[in-house]
Amino acid sequence: MSLYDNLGVKENATWQEIKNAYKSKSQKLHPDKNPNPNALQEFREVQRAYNVLKDPDRKKYYDKTGNEKGTEHGEACKVIADIYLQVAKQNGYQPKDYLQDIKITLRNSIKKTVNKGILIKREINAIKYLIDQTKGDELILRALQIEKLQGDQKLKNIEQTKVIMNRALKIIEKAEYTGHVPQDIKMSTTSTTSFNSWSDPYIS
């Protein structure tokens, strides 16, 4: 079953059709409004489909390959490009060794992401305990199940972020070693002042 099937639209659906289908289905299947035991899982599948198809890059990649996760390398390059623009702006876009600054920023971000994941895991475990202890009150139980579903999704996003950031760190470390920044990172920058304009010995 494709992501388009999950939303009930055709593969050539417009952005507005995808948006409308998501809104309609998510309202219909929301656990607060739908007591059907299968509604929670169907609601999750609708959210998963929309999260991919609402992103033009991920949608394009999914349409081409059938893989909904997208390219980790491409996402990592975007992360690097975004950090580059931050550190370059802080330095007035003056030529310097930005690779070291990017590496430090990435490592700090990874540490923060790991710590955030630990906190979310603790929250999920606390919710699991409350679910186990809740008996007879369907309203409270459903609310807790929704909280757990949201926590699981947050944790999944955290894990994916960690994978992308670690991939980005490896790219930067390789760039430091070889003195070459991949062309797809240069192409990922959105500023007119991009990697292509560096008069920097690390850029070939």
Supply the number of helical segments.
8
Order of secondary-structure elements = HHHHHHHH
> How many domains would you count in the coordinates?
1
Q: How much strand content do the residues show?
A: under 5%
How many beta-strand segments? 0
Q: Could you list the spans in which at least 5 consecutive residues all have pLDDT below 50?
A: 187-204
- Averaging pLDDT over every residue, what do you get? 78
Gross morphology is: flat
Helix content: over 70%
Query: CA-to-CA gap between the ends?
Result: 45 Å
Which CATH architecture?
A: Orthogonal Bundle
Please, could you describe this protein's structure?
The chain is built from eight helices and no strands. The chain is mainly α and 204 residues long. It has one domain: DnaJ domain (Helix Hairpins), CATH 1.10.287. Helix 2 (15-29) runs antiparallel to helix 3. The longest helix is centred in the C-terminal third of the chain and has 41 residues, at 138-178. The relative contact order is 0.11. Mean pLDDT is 78; it is low at 187-204.
